[in-house]
Amino acid sequence: MSSNGQKIMEWSERLAQYSEPHWAEKNQLTCTYLTPAHLQTAREIKSLMNEAGFDEVSTDAVGNIVGVYRAASSSSSSGSSIADATATVKTLMTGSHYDTVRNGGKYDGRLGILIPIACVAELVRQQRRLSYDFEVVCFSEEEGQRFRATFLASGALTGDFDPSWLDQQDAEGVTMRSAMQAAGLPGDLTEIIKLKRDPEKYIGFVEAHIEQGPVLFEGGIALGVVTSINAGVRAICKVTGTAAHAGTTPMTMREDALLAAAEISLMAEKRALQDEGSVATVGQMQVPGGSINVIPGECLFSLDMRAPFDGQRDALVADILAQAQSIASRRGVKFECTETMRASAAPSNLKLQERWERAVKSVGQPVFKLNSGAGHDAMKLHTIMPQAMLFVRGGNRGISHNPMEIISQEDATLATQAFMALLDDIETHPFS
Amino acid sequence: MSSNGQKIMEWSERLAQYSEPHWAEKNQLTCTYLTPAHLQTAREIKSLMNEAGFDEVSTDAVGNIVGVYRAASSSSSSGSSIADATATVKTLMTGSHYDTVRNGGKYDGRLGILIPIACVAELVRQQRRLSYDFEVVCFSEEEGQRFRATFLASGALTGDFDPSWLDQQDAEGVTMRSAMQAAGLPGDLTEIIKLKRDPEKYIGFVEAHIEQGPVLFEGGIALGVVTSINAGVRAICKVTGTAAHAGTTPMTMREDALLAAAEISLMAEKRALQDEGSVATVGQMQVPGGSINVIPGECLFSLDMRAPFDGQRDALVADILAQAQSIASRRGVKFECTETMRASAAPSNLKLQERWERAVKSVGQPVFKLNSGAGHDAMKLHTIMPQAMLFVRGGNRGISHNPMEIISQEDATLATQAFMALLDDIETHPFS
């Protein structure tokens, strides 16, 4: 089993060949929805799946690569489609995305594809079949880079594909429908709607993913069991004060928009620190047309607030916005806030999460639980079936969305062992 | 005397006709060095001076309009040049600038030209001459808008004209030398050097100016006696932290560049508030390439720090920079600071300041003293002769560098009366 980590490292490099611009030229990996690099990546994944010994490997109407490894007792170990799965044999779904952010890393998404492929290769090598169908979905889109349609690929499986997306244009004016048709996909809503899964046929969804944060790295821990994917709210804020001469306006007569924004940023930090697992970030700030010698009359900034549970998120957001109003009022400036995104928390299914805990323990690793600050495909599947995620430690202090994203071969091996243990756990302790 | 305010209001409108774009079209006043609007303004000022009855009105080698009203005992009440002034008859110099910032106000600079012109008109009407020569210099450049050569006009009188400025280009690639020659000026350094004044021949320099701040307006006071023009330091600052995922990086594991900058901004405010007359302003702030969901890895901001005296300014700057370092160090980020400007304070000559105090009192106004947060031509003259300034209240909470800059006719009348009183005071109580 120790060679699985090495395989995953090699496969990651194989997939990272396809980038625009090319990795070797620019040391960059950019693979956005249905671009040439993305289509080549899809072909390479299909080859990997076929080499591993999946029974079926196909591309669906949104470009997901779907591989199925049939159960021993499945109606047929080849030839039957997913929809035909018998009532007695259920399916475990796993997967993650193969698209990347611009100038992203090699493991974000892809690790959650390559680990289950390594598991199927291992099962084939052992000439073993499971008591359930094992479906690996390589999602074509999660990052929302080319189109403003984040999670379109996993969304298609949960019935959340927004029909208006087909007419949406990328930066070059190409509609999603044209991009799909150019890639050999139908570009047809009827076909996309058919992708929706029937939850009754599924055990649930599991996903392995690089942590994309520093917690496991700082703790010296290889694997983490995810308890919840955070709820989040994003907002764009504006403080309006009065621009005035920086030399001639006494400190006590100012209505400085920037200082109010600064105070709000620090208050948001302090408030988030009071919670277990909450985060609040001001990622953007600017004084439009600001001059070195003019008191800022306006300041724009962003707020990103997340917490493991919806209630905790709501309290965080309410407190921050109320305190922002009182800071603005005390400083004689106006505070306005427009919410641009609101996502519910996706707490792990406890029974599925406990299977990950047993799996991690069985490979000799400590059980470390953490919540996920980032969104994942599991968030979408959460809306229709039980889900639970496994995190794998990132090197370089967990940096992600960056070419410096890295994992170790040893951790890739451990993650694959834990995934195999999860498959065994479901085999040994079937859901009642 | 009550019509002087009205005259000044009318003359201000006359000068404001010349703008690019035109005031009437865009409600904008922009008059930068040696542009067509600037040359038309200069011609209009010469007409005003000739109408008022100055003995000599000329344009010097940097475009200053110089008007002289000769003393009763002057070697000649017409024809003799400034440099020929006899040892026994000294000169009082006054003046201010007629250029503006882009989209500026009608009174910034120009009020300090129009008040003494009104005084000369009044002296002529009374058929009075003073016991000293009265020289009104209308400075062609103070705002540093077209060329990076702020105070070039008053600098020429103090020997601070930088020869390299002649080769400096404006945004269209026109050198200052070409601009001067196109305007009919020699564009020749030798001629500019000759403009340097001999301090031995001068009583000193006085300047009336709109306050450009809210202090007189908020205090309900028409006139203010300036005690000092603030010392200042400007700096560009950079905080370097670590960009990381806003969702996945716990609050306790962040090296957020923006939060350090926010804390530094609030600390600078608090530190400036501890002093009488100090100000500190962060006018610009940005997170280069910042995203709503990324912890800022870098933050750039400006610092403008001013105080009435050099020592107070130095302590302010030293404290702010030291505290900035300790904030950065506590937050695990790097703070760097590059000084871009350092100007010494110009405290008023106490005897000349007392003359303004007596003048203000003599017109029935309370003596209110304040320091100037903005720089003025008097700052340059300060380097070679005694100087003291009078501030006139601005309406609209003292807004300046803005088309909303305004003064009342009543205040213009009071300022002219006070200026006449100052001229009388120097007449009655000559310098020993």
Walk me through what this model shows.
2 copies of one chain form a homodimer. Chain A is of the alpha+beta class and 432 residues long. Chain A has 2 domains: 3-228 and 345-428, Zn peptidases (Aminopeptidase); 231-343, Alpha-Beta Plaits (2-Layer Sandwich). Helix content of chain A is 35%, strand content 21%. Chain A has helices spanning 3-16, 23-26, 36-52, 111-125, 152-158, 176-182, 189-193, 215-219, 257-273, 310-331, 350-362, 377-381, 409-428; strands at 56-59, 65-69, 91-97, 133-139, 202-210, 223-229, 231-240, 244-245, 279-281, 285-286, 294-295, 298-307, 334-343, 346-347, 369-372, 387-392. In chain A, strands 1, 2, 3, 4, 5, 6, 14, 15 and 16 form a 9-stranded mixed sheet that branches. In chain A, helix 1 (3-16) crosses helix 4 (111-125) and helix 4 (111-125) crosses helix 13. The radius of gyration of chain A is 24 Å and the shape is globular. The model of chain A is unreliable at 77-81 (pLDDT under 50). At the A-B interface, strand 7, strand 8, helix 9, strand 9 and strand 10 of A face strand 7, strand 8, helix 9, strand 9 and strand 10 of B.
